[in-house]
Amino acid sequence: MPVEEGDVVVAVPNQVSSSLGDEAVILELTQGIYYGLNEVGARIWTLLKEPRRAGEIRDAIVDEYEVVSATATRDVLGLLTELADRGLIEVRDGTAP
Fold first, then answer.
1. Residue 21 located in a structural domain
2. Between vectors from CA 20 to CA 46 and to CA 81, what angle results, nearest 5°?
3. 39, 22 Cβ separation under 8 angstroms
4. Which of 5, 22, 59, 72 has the smallest set of CB atoms within 10 Å of its CB?
């Protein structure tokens, strides 16, 4: 199910992650699968350590990187949806931060 701008997202507890320079690696503990994130993905992952609305994460990426809002929206929501599909983040509706 796609993540929407108003959804609250947070990293799940059954994972371990580490920074590797500008990138990040995540180990999903249940299946033992590693995932790698580039610099922007690693920044998003850092923001996921506390519950936040997906739109807030998009806004942070727009502020920190040279990207237009429409592109950031598509890419951030796409990554969040992928992370949710892989069981790496929890998605809550916008009523519970």
1. no
2. 45
3. yes
4. 22
* 90, 12 Cβ separation under 8 angstroms: yes
pTM, two decimal places: 0.91
Summarize pLDDT for 17-72 with one digit per residue, the tens: 999 889 999 998 888 889 999 999 999 999 999 999 999 999 999 999 999 999 99
Each as own residue / partner, the long-range contacts of residues 84-87 (CB below 8 Å, 24 or more positions apart, any chain) are 84/1, 84/3, 84/9, 86/28, 86/33, 86/35, 87/12, 87/14, 87/28, 87/30, 87/31
What distance in Å separates the CA atoms of residue 59 and residue 50, rounded to the nearest whole number?
16
**Would 58 be classed as within a structural domain?**
yes
Phi and psi at residue 27, in whole multiples of 5°? -110, 115
Task: Name the residue with tokens 């922007």.
Answer: 40
Domain that holds residue 50: 8-12+40-92
- Distance from C-alpha of 18 to C-alpha of 79, rounded to nearest angstrom: 18
